[in-house]
Amino acid sequence: MSEPDASPTYSAQVRRLAELTARVQAQRAEAQDWYDQQCAAAQRAVSEATDQVRRAEAEVAAAREELERVDAEAAHLWQQLRDRLGGRGLGGPPGPALDATGDPLHLVQGVRELLGRVGQPGELPSSANPLLVLCGLFGAVLAYALGLGARQLGVSYGGDLAVGLPVLALVVTLLGPLIGLVPAKRLADRRHAVFGPRPMAVVVVAGLAGTALLLALGR
Question: How big, in percent rounded to 5, are the helix, strand and coil portions of the chain?
Fold first, then answer.
């Protein structure tokens, strides 16, 4: 049986193999460390990106909520302005200004304070009473004319209409004082004033007086 070769060449080959094995293990360990570092870095990047997305979503939700709050407040203030101006010549709320800067809530607060300083519109002054009286008389005359026309139709057609139309004519005539409220309200809107109980009473009383006078003259 032959003995293993213990020559210097064999020993050198064994050492060489051991060195190569150690080098391979070191390189493998280094590669594993690099891989672990890359995985950790990728996980950190994913975590940071996820946090950024969550923060961005929270900012978007907050911005949307603020936008809805500003829009609602702007619509409310615009409605107040419409009420104070009588709603004439005003459409919907204006859109956002492209060159606007600053916190929109502060701007809305400024508008609210400005409207508060302007105050509520006043009632129609007493100097408008003659016009209110004319509105009441106009309603009375118009209703009486319609009623008179209805009675004439009843007389012309006869039959059931001769019975029903006079009743309808009386109802229309009695509504004359209320018809005058329509032009009186338009007068108040044009003057940016409140059409309150006093102006309404002036119109109705004038309409009642006109209706009573017309009925008395028509007998």
Answer: 80, 0, 20
Residue (of 191, 194, 179, 170) closest to 134 by Cα position: 179
Query: Torsions phi, psi of 194, nearest 5?
Result: -85, 130
Q: What is the DSSP letter of 141?
A: H
Least confident of 110-119, 129-138, 142-151: 110-119
List all residues 6 or more positions away from 80 whose beta carbon is below 8 Å from its beta carbon: 115
Domain boundaries, the chain: 27-94+102-118, 126-218
Least confident of 67-76, 146-155, 169-178, 201-210: 146-155
Q: Which of 115, 128, 134, 119 is nearest to 195 (CA)?
A: 128
Evaluate whether 108 touches 74 at the Cβ level (below 8 Å).
Answer: yes
Q: Where do we find the tokens 């508060």?
A: 116
Could you give the CA distance from residue 9 to residue 124 in angstroms, rounded to a whole number?
123
Of 124, 150, 147, residue with least CA distance to 135: 124
Phi and psi, residue 7, nearest 5°: -70, 160
For residue range 24-81, list pLDDT tens digits in order. Answer: 999 999 999 999 999 999 999 999 999 999 999 999 999 899 888 888 888 887 777 7
